[in-house]
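Need tokens for this chain, all 109 residues.
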Amino acid sequence: MLKHLGAIIGLSMAVMLTILYVQTGLQYLVTAHEWLSNVLKEVFSGGEAGNIIRQLLALLTIPFALGLIPAIGYWLAKREWFPYFMECVWIVWLVQTSALIVLYKATGA
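Here are the structure tokens for all 109 residues:
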């Protein structure tokens, strides 16, 4: 219990000290998602099914691409697959999804 309490306090302090960098990173993540979504608009139709597929691909591509960065580095160093690839993908996906939900603006009503 004390280890968990110490870890949460330490991580909270680290976030508070690096809040500007974290905010910039989140802005880059959301900007990359918007850019990819706009690029995919040229590929998929403007209908409801096309929009759902476009948003799904935009939401999944970035976490897998960012998860490949440590996986490639690990493979170059050890010549074996990165054992925590999916955990990295899940973390990036959760952060990206949380940022998109916070920034979501309802269109129309």
